[in-house]
Automatic annotation (TrEMBL):
One of its GO terms (cellular component) is cytoplasm. Residues 173-291 form the Ketopantoate reductase C-terminal domain. Pfam families: ApbA, ApbA_C. The lineage of its organism: Archaea, Methanobacteriati, Methanobacteriota, Stenosarchaea group, Halobacteria. This is 2-dehydropantoate 2-reductase. GO terms for biological process: coenzyme A biosynthetic process; pantothenate biosynthetic process. It comes from Natrarchaeobius halalkaliphilus. NCBIfam families: apbA_panE.
Amino acid sequence: MEIVVFGAGSLGSLVGGRLARDHEVTLVARAEHTEAIRDSGLHIEGELEATVFPAATTDGRGLAADLAIVTVKSGDTATAADALATGSFDVVLSLQNGMGNEAVLADVLEGSILAGTASYGAVRREPGTVECTGRGEIVLGAREGGSSVLAERVGRAFSVVGLETTVADDMPRRLWGKLAVNAGINPVTALADVENGAVLDPPANDTARAATRETARVARACGVHLPNRVALESMARVADDTAANASSMRQDVRTGRRTEIDAINGYVLDRASERGLEVPTNRTLATLVRTWERARGLR
Ligand code: PAF
């Protein structure tokens, strides 16, 4: 298969790097990362190891492939969609944090859009090198739910190269479940500058659990079956599995980048407002992170 990974940061490089063992992969990445990969290949360290030689470019316009995997930050999805629209792809898979990414891609692109979530831990160590800090799972499927032959095909390609992958027919519920995890872990670890495991214990656990519980309630109001217990257990499991990791939002704050708050707690807030629901913890967390971004001229 010909595969383009659009936005090959840490997770995109990890996934693209594994796929490059069996497929013709092109990574669309930042300049330094692209140059390092062209010079001496892509090195994957940690729990998954490989050195591979995918093509790499900074220019995502005019590309063509069987599959495009989008791994950009949610705030960059519209720009990615515009660039992808100048090329041609049979299938586009969003492997991003936050909600609403697939709808943004579907607005602009003609190929089939698949939804996905990834819980692999990945950190970029230096240009050309990423570390897999925790084996996780990729879940993908039709964005509206139901079975999909294309999702089965993409899922097989992922599994064959050793990426733990589940093809799911209930992606809306899976996406809300992931959102409930991110709504609890990401802003709390970013604002307190702590590792993911900190949300398992007092005093951070109350705030993280409240944000997760509120998210599950909004999911149910949107017609998605997500019991509080299931969302809370899932948040605790991910925090435990990734206890020593820095969440993506904490990494963004530490490196002075705009975060994905709008597509995580901001999304919960918007859906809650539409339904007349109060989500005070998500509101406070979103306000604090947005205040941090505003003070740094990031919004
Ligand atoms: O955004 C992240 O960092 C990850 O989605 C998660 C699951 C919170 C693990 O760090």
